[in-house]
Specification:
By secondary structure, the chain is an alpha/beta fold. Helices cover 40% and strands 17% of the residues. It has a 7-stranded mixed sheet with strand order 7-2-1-8-9-13-10, with helices on both faces.
C-alpha cells in the first residue's frame, strides 16, 4: 500500500479520505489503506460508542491487531454501521481502529501497519479541524475520537512521517474557522467537483454532515447551513473545500486532552480523562441521547403530515437566515426514525439538486 490515510474521527472522515486520495494521489495505480473508526451517529447505530472487531463477523486480518472491514462484513445485533457498505462501494481497503485498548492500542496498530506495508505517505485527516482544539473548548462535541488518533500518531514509530491535514475548516460545527485559521499551515489542495465524483454514490446514502458539506462547498454551495440536533450554524464559504496542513507535534502539545490520554490502555480510561479535561465524553452524550431518542422517535405514517412539518421547519429556518440544512438535522429536529432518514435522503436525492443527498436546500413557502 503506497498510501495510508488515518481518518481521525471515523464516520465521514473515512469518506473524505477517499476524496483526498482522488485529489492528491490520482496517478496511483492502487487504492489507499484507510484506517478508521466504525463510530456512527445514533441515527445509524443505536448502540453508543465505537464498534470493536468483536462486534463484526467476516473481518479480514491484516496484522496481529488490525482487521480490515470488507464489503461482506456484517454486524452482530443490535449494532449497525456504515463501514461495510462503504467498503463495498469504494475501491479502498478500510481497516478498523480499535480504541478499546486506548491510545496505546491505536499506536500499536499504526506501528504494525507501517512496518508491514511501509507506505510512502501517511496522512492523518480530520474534516472540520476539531483535532486542533485544546480539548476544553465549550463548543466541542466529539473531542475524544480525534484526540485518540492524534495521540497515537504522535507516539507512533513513524510519527515523523505523519502529515496532519485539516479539510473544510469549521465545517463540523465545532471550532469556528476564525479560531482555526491561525493554527493552520499551508494550503495543500482545494477540492473541486471532479474530486467529489470519487464519493458521489456514497453521498447518496451516507449520513455524514461535515463531509457532505465538504463536498457541497466543492460543488459551489454557499450560505449558512444548520447541522446536528442542536441546529449549529455552519457558514459555507470559499474556505470550505480547502485542505491545509498543520504541524503534528505542536497540535499534540497544545491539545490537553490528547496529552492526557496518550498512555491510556482502555477506552474507559480515556473516557475518564476526557471527562476531567473536557467536562464530558461524547459517549456520555450518546448514552443520554440514546435514552431520549428511544422515547421520542416516531414513524410518521402520515406522509402529508410529515411534509407539513418539513415545510414548517423550512420556513422557520429561512427566517433564521439559514440557506441549507442536513437530512440528519431535519430527521432529529422532527424526532424521526433512522428509516425516515433513509427515506428523506432518497427523496432529497430525487429533487433537482447537484448537491449530496444529505444536504437539504431550504425553500421559501
Amino acid at each position: 500500500m503506497k498510501r495510508l490515510i488515518v481518518a481521525a474521527g471515523g464516520g465521514g472522515d473515512a469518506v473524505a479520505a477517499a476524496m483526498l486520495h482522488a485529489a492528491l494521489y490520482a496517478a496511483d495505480d492502487e487504492p489507499a489503506l484507510i484506517l478508521t473508526y466504525s463510530w456512527d451517529r445514533l441515527i445509524v447505530d443505536p448502540v453508543p460508542g465505537p464498534r470493536s472487531p468483536a462486534d463484526f463477523t467476516g473481518l479480514h486480518q491484516l496484522t496481529p491487531h488490525v482487521w480490515a472491514v470488507p464489503g461482506t462484513a456484517t454486524l452482530k445485533p443490535p449494532h449497525a454501521a456504515t463501514l461495510p457498505r462503504l467498503a463495498a462501494e469504494l475501491p479502498h481497503t478500510f481497516a478498523l481502529i480499535d480504541p478499546y485498548a486506548g491510545a496505546t492500542g491505536i499506536t500499536r496498530q499504526l506501528d504494525e501497519l507501517t512496518t508491514h506495508f511501509t507506505p510512502e505517505t501517511i496522512d492523518l485527516l480530520d474534516v472540520g479541524g476539531d483535532i486542533l482544539a485544546h480539548g476544553n473548548e465549550p463548543t466541542l462535541r466529539s473531542p475524544l475520537a480525534d484526540a485518540l488518533t492524534l495521540a497515537a500518531c504522535t507516539r507512533a514509530k513513524a510519527a515523523a512521517d505523519v502529515r496532519l491535514l485539516v479539510a473544510g475548516p469549521g465545517l463540523d460545527g465545532e471550532l469556528p474557522a476564525d479560531t482555526l485559521r491561525p493554527r493552520l499551515g499551508p494550503l495543500v489542495t482545494t477540492f473541486t467537483p471532479e474530486h467529489t465524483q470519487a464519493i458521489t454514490s456514497v453521498l447518496n446514502w451516507h449520513p455524514s454532515e461535515a463531509t457532505a458539506l465538504l463536498a457541497a462547498t466543492a460543488l459551489g454551495a454557499r450560505g449558512l447551513c444548520e447541522v446536528r440536533d442542536a441546529g449549529l450554524p455552519v457558514p459555507l464559504t470559499d474556505e470550505g473545500p480547502t485542505v491545509h496542513q498543520a504541524d503534528l507535534t505542536p497540535a499534540f502539545a497544545s491539545n490537553r486532552l490528547a496529552q492526557s490520554i496518550a498512555d491510556t490502555t482502555t477506552l474507559g480510561e480515556a473516557e475518564e480523562r476526557c471527562r476531567a479535561v473536557s467536562g464530558t465524553s461524547e459517549i456520555d452524550y450518546e448514552r443520554a441521547k440514546a435514552q431520549r431518542l428511544s422515547q421520542q422517535q416516531t414513524d410518521h405514517a402520515d406522509p402529508h403530515g410529515l411534509l407539513d412539518q418539513i415545510k414548517d421547519f423550512e420556513q422557520a429556518a429561512v427566517t433564521r437566515g439559514t440557506t441549507y440544512t442536513t437530512v440528519r438535522r431535519l430527521t432529529e429536529a422532527l424526532g424521526l426514525t433512522s428509516e425516515a432518514l433513509q427515506h428523506l435522503t432518497q427523496f432529497n436525492a430525487a429533487r433537482a439538486s447537484h448537491l449530496p443527498a444529505s444536504v437539504w436546500k431550504l425553500h421559501h413557502r
